[in-house]
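User: I'm putting together a teaching handout on how sequence relates to shape, and I'd like one worked example. Could you take Acyl-CoA synthetase from Nocardia mangyaensis, show the sequence you're using, and then write out its predicted structure as tokens right after it?

Assistant: Happy to. First the sequence, then the structure tokens directly below it.
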Amino acid sequence: MSTSRFDTLPAAFQHTAAIDPDATALRTPGDAQTITWREYADQVRAVAAGLSGLGVRRGDTVALMMSNRVEFYPLEVGAQHVGATSFSVYNTLSPDQLAHVLGNAGTRVVICEPQYAKLVASAGVQLEHIVCVDDAPEGTLSVAELLAAAPDGFDFEAAWRAVRPDDVATLIYTSGTTGAPKGVETTHAALLFQVHGIADILGIEFGDTITSFMPTAHIADRLTALYVQEVLGTQVTSVSDPKQIATALAELRPTVWGAVPRVWEKLKAAIEFKVAAEPDEARRQGMQWALSVAAARSRHQLAGEPVPDELAAEWARADELVLSKLRGALGLDRVRWALSGAAPIPPQTLAFFAGLGIPIAEIWGMSELACICSVSHPRDAKLGSVGKLLPGMESRVADDGELQVRGPLVMKGYRGRPEQTAEAVDAEGWLRTGDIISLDAEGYLTVVDRKKEMIINAAGKNMSPTNIENAVKAATPLIGAMAVIGDGKPYNTALIVLDAESVEPYARAHGLPDASPAALSIDPGVIAAIRAGVAQGNNALSRVEQLKRFRILPTFWEAGGDEVTLTLKLKRRVIAAKYTAEIDDLYAANPHEAILSPR
């Protein structure tokens, strides 16, 4: 745990880099690339000097657009050291989206991979420089040319010491579920408060190991793999292809790790598939016994009850014989704790990993709060709760159940949008989070849903669509995404999309020649599996919440597409408009034959 406190990211980085200069700070799987803290600090100094030579000054904006790679870090941190506001953009943005983000940010310099140079140049934003890593297409600068631009006598020390705590360190663009993304201005002070706040609770140490595999434009990756590293000295393994995260985990065996709920759900499905596919009957029965013991223990944990001594002893045997080996196969046998955030995770998924011996701390936060606002150490956590507010943050609950918070994490504002900033943060500094959250007597928070996404059915019953979706998705790995429909309706229905990564293994295992979503959406076996999952999910819901009908769509929903944001949030209004005909069928008196009841 860090004991030294600094008020800017450059000051923290300079201290951290000097703790053990020869220790590895950055790496890729298999140590194909490694950078020590000494090398990292030298590169940061060189990049800062080069950017200064290009005219970048304190308060200017530098954008980065690249995949997860170790070269990103010195470039980003170098920009911080000249006082620039440095941020990342999603690689999948359309030209119009990129133009909006770069223009709104007031970007002067973009650092990108060559394949994005043409897109950046065509965005129509007046940029001073485009710098490319790897190769430099015509009209761009190479990193070598950037470094060569360093002026004689550049005072690196003076540059980073001039950075102030209330300077905007980064911009985080919201996912844009209801309109154009807004640029959240987050200061050095907020990020330092954030890092130390979670470190004091979770205990993060110099040399702890973690992966970076989510997009660097996502605040979750920026916090856990960039800002935490700068301040506390973690070692980051950069995984360029998120589909390779399972392999990277097994190789790295990280000490701390975090992921969004969908990744945890996929890991859970992989374990269940591994057990079901075990060819040796005795081994398979042993694994099934161990998972049943794990499930029995987690049921008590989920209910907040003490685990009976006899069950605890049986779990210890299961752990020694089987569960520890499953953790090892995942690469999570050294994890002291793990995080889940960005969206609510099904309690069943949390319970599954708790039973497996992998403690997950569910967190709650938002871009407007520098990422994490509430968390508890797994030993203090209540399964299904998102923990307690970080010390120093205040909360209150409005009459309609919306949580409002105030304190050092609250954003400076939305860039260039004073009216929307005033709508989000009142004159007394209270941020309207938009989340319906319950607070128990001990201060633990439980997320109900986004206020604007709550369903009120025809009978006036309030329901959370996310809660319903999670109950069903927890029952079958075949579902990649689903949208519950029911606002103003007599009963709930759902549009269901198959999981793009699960369909090919499913098709192979069942001898199906066509693994396209169009073919599988009408396959009797797939329909039966989804129907069973919906029925199982319904059993965990109240009668009024249960799904009466569903439709499997013949398509996938891609991140950044029409239906799902880049941070995997549903665009519910867009979905409702795009699939009007399918939704009408769900409520027809004599539904189309593709509409199937779960019962």
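A couple of points you could highlight for students: Residues 454-586 form a domain with the GMP Synthetase; Chain A, domain 3 fold (CATH 3.30.300.30). The longest helix spans residues 281-302.
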